[in-house]
Amino acid sequence: MKRGSGQRQAEKGAILRAQVLDAAIDCLAEMPYSEISMGVIAERAGVSRGGMQYHFPTRLDVFGATVEHLHHKRLEIFRKDLTSINPDTDAVDHIVESHWRHLNEREFRAYQELILVARSEPQLAKLLAASYSAFIRKWHDIAQELIGWQVEDPETARSGNIAHYLLEGMAYGQIGGQISEAEIQEILDYTKHIMRSQMKK
């Protein structure tokens, strides 16, 4: 059975949307938010500005969808990291080192830029807050499914939050060169200690 024109159009639209959102992530990772216009994103995506605006009429529409796209990508990365743990690997080392590596990659650099901008962009701040709540719930679901992380337990939740925000805070500290490599390693080791202590319980 041949596909209808409506299905083909939907597929083309999905491809264009993905191109635009990936381009927006690249732009956010590489340049200040203030320099990222609709035209800049369209050029980076290799699409016409008119075609882009059909799917994303405003700049806020683009960045709102980019937030969701970023969170989806980060959850995929997290699931892949946990499923790649093998019996000969120290699970805590693998989780902490993988997470820290990703906090220095394209997706989190783009997310950092959005967070910094949201201080003076109330509409973007609202989008980020709503999306982040859903993101964290899914993050916990993946951790519970794949490594049995019991987030309902208050102590487990607390230790997970400490580990999570230690690493994210350290990533922000790196932006302005506020933390040395030795300090980074010390905090990574401390994060592993927190996780091991809770997993033993």
Topology overview:
Layout: H1 5-30, H2 38-45, H3 49-55, H4 59-83, H5 91-102, H6 106-118, H7 122-147, H8 154-175, H9 181-200
Helix pairs in contact: 1-2, 1-4, 1-6, 4-5, 4-6, 4-7, 5-9, 6-7, 8-9
Structure, explained:
α1 (5-30) packs across α6. The chain has 201 residues and is an all-alpha fold. It is built from 9 helices and no strands. The radius of gyration is 19 Å and the shape is globular. The protein has helices at residues 5-30, 38-45, 49-55, 59-83, 91-102, 106-118, 122-147, 154-175, 181-200.
Q: What structural class is derived from the secondary structure elements?
A: mainly alpha
Largest sheet: none
Please state the CA-atom Rg, rounded to the nearest Å.
Answer: 19 Å
Number of strands: 0
Mean pLDDT: 90
Number of helices: 9
Strand content: under 5%
What can be said about this structure in brief?
By secondary structure, this protein is mainly alpha-helical. It has helices at residues 5-30, 38-45, 49-55, 59-83, 91-102, 106-118, 122-147, 154-175, 181-200.
What distinguishing features does this structure have?
201 residues, mainly alpha
